[in-house]
Design brief:
The protein is mostly helical. The chain has one domain. The chain is built from seven helices and no strands. Helix 2 runs antiparallel to helix 3 and helix 4 packs antiparallel against helix 6.
Length: about 150
């Protein structure tokens, strides 16, 4: 349950050339940067409170950067919905699996430990995927959804 630093760093670094390739206006790019910074501050606060891990905070910031101002609220809402579904699913699975010995890879044992951590990066990724098609980057690149 670790989100590598290089992955979040790569996401942040790749935003710069994509901004130029997409022809985003300085105002749109600046707003996206502001959202990314605000998400980083919010992520650090949640990390400090012990609600999420450090990798989750960085992933939250990078997703905010790519999604921009107009998709910030839908991103947070979808992330919260995905996080709730993930938590409920894990609670149920942990109760179900508690009757059997925890066999398998180390990550599975950690994931199924009652009272253990919830890998919130999954919820953040799902929230980002749900809103990414409407992001300024995708809209500027004129990439459409397949129906």
């Amino acid at each position: 349950m670790t989100i590598p630093n290089w992955l979040c760093g790569l996401g942040a670094v790749l935003f710069v050339p994509v901004v130029f390739a997409a022809g985003l206006s300085p105002a749109t790019a600046g707003a996206a940067l502001a959202v990314g910074l605000a998400a980083l501050v919010a992520g650090i606060a949640m990390f400090s409170a012990g609600w999420i891990g450090g990798g989750d905070a960085k992933l939250f910031a990078v997703c905010g950067l790519w999604l921009g101002w107009h998709e910030a609220l839908p991103f947070v809402v979808w992330t919260a919905i995905a996080g709730g579904a993930l938590a409920v699913t894990l609670l149920g699975l942990r109760k179900l699996v508690a009757a059997w010995p925890r066999q398998g890879p180390n990550w599975w044992s950690r994931l199924m430990t009652p009272g253990g951590d919830v890998p919130y990066g999954i919820a953040i990724a799902l929230g980002a995927l749900a809103t990414f098609p409407e992001s300024p980057v995708i809209q500027a690149l004129q990439i459409t959804r397949l129906n």
